[in-house]
């Protein structure tokens, strides 16, 4: 497995002042180990937090910064930390890093773990101090073999240097960190399914409440954060709240920078750290270089397979949650995919829904039965054997599997691209009906 490349095409030089996540990346793509990381101010923010700030002050800074979860849901990180009970009797608390990056077309966390493992460790160390968590786990996608090797090596380095273990940096705080590789289930991206899997149980989501902040892994208070989210914490502590807010483009309601990318038949597919609020057109044209010769942009998804399709005219939307929300879908992971004019949307959706149907945990009926039903209908339409009423049935399924109608958010995310494709490319679905509805009524 080769390391993820950080594209530098049409990219300004990486600097600590503007690219807090990526400025330390090596040009050769190799991991930044402890010696180099410390030469570049690594663990300086952790030292500041553990020796100069209280856990409450660290939490307040993260809350004031406006940092939101970078895994797709976008919940305010500091607010989530504040949900952890402040009862000193509950001395066993856990910090879990969600590194189960199985969203199709998403690869940002892999870059950080493969090439900057100490950034994640430092982010978890500071976060654990704020949460008063004595133990942390990185729940890692099992296929990320290089990530596992590099994280384990970095953890060993940090422990040998006194940056993990007992009385870290001469403080009273102690923290142990472990890597746990999963068996490969998309549903583990849901935090309570992740917790169940970590405990050795079937990866089904749990009923909420109680929420993990109160009753999480092994029944103890638990906080679950995404890799990229945790990697933002050292820069916020080291550089301050006002600096972090200033990274975003004017008008963005979300603060900081974000790893964004574009894949598909674009000239320069890649991954970049960019200010939140950047227009999608700038990402597509200036960074990804637009479409390759001979191809035209037909549609695009802003942030993974679980986000709705948009049209070329939507490229003027700003890349932050509210900006993408204005054009009818979600920011998601921020890694966009371009669909070119050679792609049939029915076949593309059939492929996507097959994935989502296979990855359903099977706990609730709408998801367990509804997603395979959509695959069956899409397969028939793709083969030109669809029946009158199939499109109406697909639309009903999108409604039945929508937000608030299933046990977790898996099914709503699965049908969002289907609903948008039916809206924008209905003619391609109608072309798969073997007998037009008018002829069927005459018979």
UniProtKB/TrEMBL annotation:
<keyword id="KW-0411">Iron-sulfur</keyword>
<dbReference type="InterPro" id="IPR019575">
    <property type="entry name" value="Nuop51_4Fe4S-bd"/>
</dbReference>
<keyword id="KW-1278">Translocase</keyword>
<protein>
    <recommendedName>
        <fullName>NADH-quinone oxidoreductase subunit F</fullName>
        <ecNumber>7.1.1.-</ecNumber>
    </recommendedName>
</protein>
<keyword id="KW-0285">Flavoprotein</keyword>
<dbReference type="Pfam" id="PF01512">
    <property type="entry name" value="Complex1_51K"/>
</dbReference>
<dbReference type="InterPro" id="IPR011538">
    <property type="entry name" value="Nuo51_FMN-bd"/>
</dbReference>
<dbReference type="InterPro" id="IPR037207">
    <property type="entry name" value="Nuop51_4Fe4S-bd_sf"/>
</dbReference>
<keyword id="KW-0479">Metal-binding</keyword>
<keyword id="KW-0288">FMN</keyword>
<keyword id="KW-0408">Iron</keyword>
<dbReference type="InterPro" id="IPR011537">
    <property type="entry name" value="NADH-UbQ_OxRdtase_suF"/>
</dbReference>
<dbReference type="InterPro" id="IPR037225">
    <property type="entry name" value="Nuo51_FMN-bd_sf"/>
</dbReference>
<feature type="domain" description="NADH-ubiquinone oxidoreductase 51kDa subunit iron-sulphur binding">
    <location>
        <begin position="346"/>
        <end position="391"/>
    </location>
</feature>
<comment type="function">
    <text>NDH-1 shuttles electrons from NADH, via FMN and iron-sulfur (Fe-S) centers, to quinones in the respiratory chain.</text>
</comment>
<dbReference type="Pfam" id="PF10589">
    <property type="entry name" value="NADH_4Fe-4S"/>
</dbReference>
<keyword id="KW-0560">Oxidoreductase</keyword>
<dbReference type="InterPro" id="IPR001949">
    <property type="entry name" value="NADH-UbQ_OxRdtase_51kDa_CS"/>
</dbReference>
<keyword id="KW-0874">Quinone</keyword>
<keyword id="KW-0520">NAD</keyword>
<dbReference type="GO" id="GO:0050136">
    <property type="term" value="F:NADH dehydrogenase (quinone) (non-electrogenic) activity"/>
</dbReference>
<keyword id="KW-0004">4Fe-4S</keyword>
<comment type="similarity">
    <text>Belongs to the complex I 51 kDa subunit family.</text>
</comment>
């Amino acid at each position: 497995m080769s390391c993820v490349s950080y594209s530098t095409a049409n990219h300004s030089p990486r600097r600590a002042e503007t690219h807090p996540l990526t400025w330390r990346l090596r040009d050769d793509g190799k991991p930044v180990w402890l010696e180099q990381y410390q030469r570049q101010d690594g663990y300086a923010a952790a030292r500041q937090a553990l020796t100069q700030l209280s856990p409450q002050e660290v939490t307040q800074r993260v809350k004031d910064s406006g940092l939101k979860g970078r895994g797709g849901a976008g919940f305010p990180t500091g607010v989530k930390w504040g949900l952890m009970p402040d009862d000193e009797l509950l001395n066993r608390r856990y910090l879990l890093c969600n590194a189960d990056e199985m969203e199709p077309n998403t690869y940002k966390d892999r870059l950080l773990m493969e090439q900057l493992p100490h950034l994640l460790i430092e982010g978890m160390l500071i976060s654990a101090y704020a949460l008063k968590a004595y133990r942390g786990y990185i729940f890692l996608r099992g296929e990320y073999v290089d990530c596992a090797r590099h994280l384990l090596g970095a953890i060993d380095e940090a422990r040998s240097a006194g940056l993990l273990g007992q009385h870290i940096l001469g403080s009273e705080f102690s923290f142990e960190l472990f890597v746990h590789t999963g068996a490969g289930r998309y549903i583990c991206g849901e935090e309570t399914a992740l917790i169940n899997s970590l405990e050795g149980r079937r990866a089904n989501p749990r009923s909420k409440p109680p929420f993990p902040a109160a009753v999480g892994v092994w029944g103890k208070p638990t906080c679950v954060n995404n890799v990229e989210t945790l990697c933002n914490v050292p820069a916020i502590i080291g550089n301050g709240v006002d600096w972090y807010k200033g990274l975003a483009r004017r008008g963005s309601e979300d603060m900081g920078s974000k790893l964004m990318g574009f894949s598909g038949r674009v000239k320069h597919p890649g991954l970049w750290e960019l200010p939140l609020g950047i227009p999608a057109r700038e990402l597509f044209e200036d960074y990804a270089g637009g479409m390759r010769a001979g191809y035209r942009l037909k549609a695009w998804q802003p942030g993974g397979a679980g986000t709705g399709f948009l049209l070329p005219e939507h490229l003027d939307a700003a890349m932050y949650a509210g900006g993408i929300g204005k054009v009818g879908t979600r920011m998601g992971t921020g890694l966009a995919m371009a669909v070119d004019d050679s792609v049939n949307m029915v076949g593309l959706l059939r492929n996507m829904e097959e994935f989502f149907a296979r990855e359903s945990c099977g706990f609730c009926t709408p998801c367990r039965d509804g997603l395979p039903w959509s695959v069956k209908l899409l397969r028939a339409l793709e083969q030109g054997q669809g029946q009158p009423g199939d499109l109406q049935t697909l639309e009903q399924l999108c409604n039945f599997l929508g937000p608030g109608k299933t046990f977790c958010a898996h099914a709503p995310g699965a049908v969002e691209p289907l609903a948008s494709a039916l809206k924008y490319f209905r003619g391609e679905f109608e072309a798969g009906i073997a007998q037009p509805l008018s002829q069927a009524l005459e018979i």
